[in-house]
Amino acid sequence: MDRGMNKVVIVKKKTRLEDLKRRYCTIEQARFYVEHMGASFDDYIEEDQNYQRALKVVRENANRMARVLEIDRDYIPNMIFGQDDIVIALGQDGLVANVMKYLDGQPLIGINPDAARWDGILLPFEAGDMESVLPKVIAKNFNQKMVSMGKAESKDGQVLYAVNDFFIGINNHTSARYNITFGGITENQSSSGVIVSTGLGMTGWHRSIMAEFRGMAKAFNLGNVTESNYEWDGDQLIFQVREPYPSRFTQADLVYGLVNKGQEIIFTSNMSENGIVFSDGILDDTIEFNAGMVLRVGLADRIGRLVIE
Predict the structure, then answer these.
(1) Which of 178, 186, 215, 248 is least surrounded by CB atoms within 10 angstroms?
(2) Spatial contact of 260 and 236, defined as CB atoms under 8 Å apart
(3) In this predicted structure, what is the pLDDT of residue 107?
(4) pTM over 0.70, yes/no
(5) Torsions phi, psi for 33 (to 5 deg)
């Protein structure tokens, strides 16, 4: 295939072995630390070897068909993607979600580098599949799954997108203090923070919170708690307040709800410091949420495009 003007961006991540090498300077020191703790170092080596082999296969296939840019996930927040770029994420589900939220309609191919080790709903391909999948994407003849995103915008113009969920709260183990406004109701709340999830995020943090809620309902003989199934491309977000604390000055009624298309949920910080907003578990790209900062959260106008075949 003629490489033409096609550009492929390969997003890779550091393996556990690479992280250990960076921390301890040499493999020998890393091995000493891991084995001193009673763990096997062989698993770290095997994982790294499998990942590097998969990366080599993806790189070689992409180089035959397109111009290739290879970057580490750490640089994604500062990456400017071309509108016609094709993006490949080589890693686990979390990497695919982290990359997708920085895209604006570019097709994203999720590659599982080690299928015997990892399973993932966002990883439909293995490295060897690139030989047949990439030509289809370049020819714009592929199937895709659309993914709705959330958008959080602060009063001073900062914008953050989410493929799975937002966390609005505080960056330590004290209580977050804020006002929450939704559906014409405003409450002054003290809690462990608020999770706002997308349809895709229903299998993440949201699921964990609902598991706790179902367990509590069962303990109090309240019966089974059922919830609707939400599609990845659905036109709604779901918010949940974690551990709300009712007092003379704080309320705990506005703790769960659906934010439909055209609606938004508004937060105003009552914290002097340590307030934070982040998405999809990435702490390197955040919005400070302190001292009167107003945050509006709703559905984003951009859609993720995950290649599925």
Answers:
(1) 248
(2) yes
(3) 97
(4) yes
(5) -65, -50
